[in-house]
Amino acid sequence: MRQNRRITTTPLRADIMTIFNDYEAHDALGLADLIRRREVSAAEVLEAAIERVDARNPALNAVVHTFFDEARATAAQPLQGPFAGVPFMLKDLGVQVRGQRVTNGSRFWQDQICTKDSTLVQRYRAAGLVLMGMTSTAEYGLSCDTTPSLQGPTLNAWDASRMPGGSSGGAAVAVASGMLPAAHASDGGGSIRIPSSCNGVFGLKPSRGRNPIGPDVGEGWNGLSVQHVITRTVRDSAAFLDATHGPESGDPYAAPTFSGSYLQGIGQPGPRLRIAFQQVDHFGGAMHPVTAAAVRETAKLLAGMGHHVEEARPTFDAAALKWDMFTIVGCNLLQALYQRARLLGRAVTPDDVEHVTWLWAERCRHRTGQDMARAIGTIHATARAMGRFFEAHDVLLTPTCATPPLPARTVDMRLEDLDEYYERLYGNNTFTTVYNCTGLPAASVPLCWADGLPIGVQIAAGLGHEMRLLQLSAELEVAQPWAARRPARAVSG
Predict the structure, then answer these.
(1) Is the pLDDT of residue 491 over 80?
(2) Which residue of 162, 207, 341, 363 pairs with 255 in a disulfide if CB–CB is 3.0 to 4.6 A?
(3) pLDDT, tens digit (0-9, with 9 covering 90-100), for 242-273
(4) What is the DSSP secondary-structure string of 363-394?
(5) What is the CATH number of the domain that holds 372?
(6) How far apart are CA 27 and CA 180, in angstroms?
(7) Could you list the active site residues?
(8) Is residue 445 assigned to a domain?
(9) Mean pLDDT value of segment 373-399
(10) How far apart (Å, rounded) are the C-alpha atoms in residues 455 and 194?
């Protein structure tokens, strides 16, 4: 029998009625708890999510494909797991969802229907999540903005004139605008952390090998790409990692073994840490004054919390890393296009893909095996340098993005000049990409705002130290809460 049932017929807006108006007051664990205690049903929670997608997505374009009928059927069934009954969406890139279309944000993949679930999707289902749709992505994850020609641009939840970040822009906007408490995302150069920073939400990139990427492939972009979630709260990110982490049969490598609970761990007091912070970029150049100020403010906050804080930065060949990453991504792109073309029985043409996608693949068509071997050697050398740095420091604090959210289409895949495009892309991503290349965990924490825009700060640690980052993020969340800061679109749109 239900008691203290938190449901109402008060409208969200004049044109929206719901039986569960309290939906946005809870994170994913909170919703699961209400469902478990039968204060609200999974079906009612799902309808609240659908109402918000229907009301807000036309203005934001964060969600590009829905399967509400399947979700309703799932919500009507008995569900088990830590997120039983919680609505959830997948990024439209790099996963398989049985019976659903996954386009990778591209015209070339727009007719792709999956015949099975990815291992990660299987684990989401086992956790009790109700899968209800797909969120927007830049084509093949190649941009820090989310403006695919196939589905049109996704808009920043705080300011439509600014980019939402990418490539998981749809996931971050869906969470920031209140459509969902959490959403799946992936990160090959910053694609969880950058949109989290641009939209004022929390995003953890786990260590390489922490979450599964199979069953058909062993790695993405030679190990640069990993998958996890974007959330409003740290505890949701921890609980999702509990639900999904661990190797699967045939993995080429795995993250250091972790046998505890991330969620339980963040409830325990963490150790006082040796925290380094940067006031220059990895090339030694000056940082944007707004992001530099965000780092200084956070360093002061951390020192006040009892951590040892000092200015220091790792040293590695930043120029080599920049262009060897270009080679790794481009060669993987070329292979993906070849595989798709082979399946379709025809060659890829410039009309099939974004202009920058075509130029990048064509440039790397002329790379050699020696070029690729050199590039892999560079990321290994960088990992060694970062490993030595994290022997002397527990955490490194930097901005997430090099600047506040850029004007929309600054990093535009329609640009004619590939080199100009890559300079803009890497210029924004300079603080995030090193952790993809080295496989280390890093998180964007939404601590600062400037001129009404969120400014994420990034914390990173040594391989396998997700717990350290989650504990520190949870401390920061208590010291300077952010979840109540919501864009106007989450209230009025």
Answers:
(1) no
(2) 207
(3) 999 999 999 998 899 999 999 999 999 989 99
(4) HHTT--HHHHHHHHHHHHHHHHHHHHHHHH-S
(5) 3.90.1300.10
(6) 9
(7) 91, 167, 191
(8) yes
(9) 98
(10) 10
